[in-house]
Amino acid sequence: MRYLKVFNGKVITPSGIIPSGYVLASGDKIIETGAGNPEIPGATEIDAHGHYISPGFIDLHIHGGGGADFMDNTVEAFLTIANIHAKYGTTAMMPTTLSCGQASLLQTLDTYAAANAQNRQGAQFIGIHIEGPYFSMNQRGAQDPKYIHDPSPAEYLEVLAHSKDVKRWSIAPERPGAIEMGKVLKAHNILPSIAHTDAVYEEVLPAYAVGYTHCTHFYSAMSGVTRRNAFRYAGVIETAYLIDDMTVEIIADGIHLPASLLKLIYKLKGPENTALITDAMRAAATSTPTSILGSLQDGLPVIVEDGVAKLPDRSSFAGSVATADRLVRTMITQAGIPLTDAVRMITETPARIMDIRQKGTLEKERDADIVIFDENINIQTTIVSGNIIYTRHEGI
User: pLDDT tens digit string along 45-54?
Assistant: First the structure.
């Protein structure tokens, strides 16, 4: 039996922090968490040197990093992204598409399957998140307008028949056919998510009823209070606050949302209903001043400045260049929330949103996805399924 013991650290658990604790894994599963440092003959030992021992970070919305984008449609790109983000604490991720042509999307699904079979040195893939093309043109942001249209049963049914790896699909629920599509997705155990939308309260309610229980990159490309024929309507933002168990995800890079909104979201939705996401594009974990959003073949040129990607005319953000550690750090330093809540928002909460019950905490029988980080959330070690994927320094 192969044992891995991580000890001499502050272990973050759902019930609090164990000041001087350990996590013991056998193979790819956690078998014990507690205080002290038990003798485990033959175990591989990792001394945390007093740092935090945390569940691995789960990123539900990510497009790229390290100079690669999932829509490059190469196995190399997928593996590059998984590898680079593991160095920043991500142990599980949902590769995310952009609005594109049907042929390109099907190719991405095929590439995902091939890359998933080879992924041994990076963050684990936990399913595809399709973002688009069924969006509001007015709220498209950096999505390519030539692909945006109403939901097409012929298209999405072909996708669902082509691959079983789709786990989430982001859609504007007000578009004709979106409600019916939501029903189909739920029947396939796929999460319909509200995104790039001009919907108002009265349009969100029937969508929520059929399974649209989550909001993609909350506040970004999303309606707030809206006036129609002089009358005011609550938008998606207000509706998400009104529906207590509507979950949201936020790009907590400190740029997409200012500290005031991070505090408001935390106050009203709480850590139990808020997930932290990077929405990272290919320039994440690089120092490049220019990049491409989407595929190298037909993606959109972007600039990188002020810690974020923008369209060249600076009219819109074009995805983040954040890594997972930055999200946790931002919530603590800018939103002023407790470390345990910030960690919950990128571990336990995303696992619950996607119903991935084997991940998200350091409890017995959960996956041995573990990160060690210091007081400033600098990642020291990343462990995926009991395998040491990244170590910052020798001896850690």
Answer: 999 999 999 9
Tens digit of each residue's pLDDT (9 = 90 or more) over 2-12:
899 999 999 99
Strand order across the beta sheet in which 317-320 lies: 290-293, 300-305, 308-310, 317-320
Q: What is the pLDDT of residues 45-102, one digit of tens each?
A: 999 999 999 999 999 999 999 999 999 999 999 999 999 999 999 999 999 999 999 9
Quick check: helix, strand or coil at residue 150?
Answer: coil
Structure tokens at 252: 């907590």
β-bridge pairing 308-310 and 166-171: unpaired
Contact partners, residue 1, CB within 8 Å, separation at least 6: 26, 27
The answer to whether 21 and 33 have CB atoms below 8 angstroms apart is yes
Cα 257 to chain center, whole Å? 16
Give the CA distances from residue 231 to residues 173, 226, 254, in Å, rounded to whole numbers and listed in that order.
Answer: 21, 8, 33
Q: What is the pTM of this model?
A: 0.97
Euclidean distance between CA atoms 328 and 341, whole angstroms = 9
The amino acid at residue 166 is V
Cβ neighbours for 379, distance < 8 A, ≥ 6 positions apart: 87, 88, 89, 325, 371, 372, 373, 390, 392
The dihedrals phi and psi of 124, each to the nearest 5 degrees, come to -75, 140
- Beta-carbon contacts of 108 under 8 Å, excluding residues fewer than 6 positions away, are 70, 71, 73, 95, 97, 100, 128
List the beta strands (DSSP E) in 27-135. 29-35, 44-47, 52-55, 57-62, 64-65, 68-69, 90-95, 124-125, 128-131
